Amino acid sequence: MSLQNRVHVSGIIVSDDSRGLLMGNRGCLHNLQKQVVKNYQLKRWIYCTLQYYGNRRPVMSPNRYTELFFMDEFTALAAGHRPCAQCQAKKYKSFKTFWQVANEMGSVSTQAMDNFIHTERTQNKETLYTLANLPNGVMVKQKENYYLLYNNQLYLWSFKGYSQSSAYNTTDLFVLITPVSVMKTIKAGFSVDVIPADLAF
Asked: Which terminus, N or C, of the chain has the lesser number of Cβ atoms within 10 Å?
């Protein structure tokens, strides 16, 4: 049986046997039986590369942070994570720079940024948007389906990849899943890595 360490685009942690392109961290969330017993321990939610200087970690070691896995970077950002300052230093600096400019925050600490994004994660997402008001690279929801907006097209999200959705009307309304401040960061120019062709599109 798969461990409960796959992150859904909505941010919840579930069991799924699909593989991911990125790892994440919210602190120690599991018990000694490798069962996830909380959604987060820290307000600092990050996503990391799968390999870093050849380091290897036993998954869900006692009293160590819980290794979480994301299908791709779009999923990690939508779930409320940001790049790790250690294994993704260049991307982290880019994210913080664009985040500060996009959200008109001036110079803020990383902790202040993490706290701001955490507040967004805990709010109910009820505001509806038309896709014309959103940038490529964000996740949206309509009814029970989650979609990636990319190249002005919608792609149905799943743990195993994407499939192109049916046509939509410019007046259709969607719930924005990606935190608003992160959406603004992407809109301002933060570059998101596109997934390999074997996973979707």
From this structure: N
- Extract the tokens encoding 97: 């720079």
Place of tokens 């579930």: 14
CA 163 – CA 155 distance, rounded (Å):
5
d(CA 92, CA 94): 5
Question: Which pLDDT does position 170 carry in this prediction?
Answer: 83
Q: How far apart are CA 129 and CA 165, in angstroms?
A: 18
Tokens of 56: 């290897």
pLDDT in tens, 133-183: 899 999 999 999 999 998 888 999 999 889 887 778 888 999 999 999 999
CA separation, residue 138 to residues 123, 149, 163 (Å): 18, 6, 16
Give CA–CA dist 50/47, Å, rounded.
9
Residue 63 corresponds to which amino acid?
Answer: N
Angle at 84 between CA 56 and CA 57, to 5 degrees: 15
Q: What is the DSSP letter of 36?
A: B
Look up the pTM and report it: 0.92
Residue 139 DSSP SS3: strand
CB 107 within 8 A of CB 99: no
